[in-house]
Design brief:
This protein has 125 residues and is α+β, with helices and mostly antiparallel strands. The protein has one domain (11-113): Roll (Thiol Ester Dehydrase, Chain A), CATH 3.10.129.10. It has one helix and five strands. The protein has a five-stranded antiparallel β-sheet with strand order 1-3-4-5-2, with helices on one face. It starts with 10 loop residues before the first strand and ends in a 12-residue tail after the last strand.
Length: 125
C-alpha cells in the first residue's frame, strides 16, 4: 500500500481556478486526468516503453480539492499479467498554508504495454 510518509510522489501540482466545477471545487475530471498521468508514468517505466490505459477499475472521491491546494499523486504497481499492469494511484491534498495532508481520491488503473505498432506486447522481465 502506498505510504505518502515514505514514498516519493509521481506528480505534484497545484489546483488552479481554471480546474473548478460550477460549485467552485476542483473538477473530478481534472483530478482523474492527473491520476491517469501518474499511472501512465509508472506504467511506462515498468513497460520500458509505450503503455496505454485500458480501464479504470475503481475510483473513489473521498474529499474535495480546493483552488490553491497542492495535490500529490502516488502510484504503485499492485499486479502484472503478461501484457497488463494494475496500478494503484492515491491523490492527497495539502492546503497552501498548512502541513497536513489528506487522502482525496484513489483508483486502480489498468494499463497494457504496447509495441511500436500499438499492439499489446509482453512486459519485460
Amino acid at each position: 500500500m502506498i505510504d505518502p510518509a515514505t514514498a516519493e510522489p509521481v506528480i505534484r501540482t497545484v489546483a488552479m481556478p481554471r480546474d473548478t466545477n460550477p460549485a467552485g471545487d476542483i473538477f473530478g475530471g481534472w483530478l482523474m486526468s492527473q491520476m491517469d498521468l501518474a499511472a501512465g508514468t509508472v506504467a511506462t517505466r515498468r513497460a520500458r516503453g509505450r503503455a496505454a490505459t485500458v480501464a479504470v477499475a475503481a475510483m473513489e472521491f473521498h474529499r474535495p480539492v480546493h483552488v490553491g491546494d497542492e495535490v500529490s499523486l502516488y502510484g504503485e504497481i499492485v499486479s502484472t499479467g503478461r501484457t497488463s499492469m494494475r496500478i494503484a494511484v492515491r491523490a492527497y491534498r495539502r492546503a497552501r498554508t498548512g502541513e497536513d495532508r489528506e487522502l482525496v481520491t484513489e483508483a486502480i488503473f489498468v494499463y497494457v504495454a504496447l509495441d511500436e505498432h500499438g499492439k499489446a506486447r509482453t512486459l519485460p522481465a
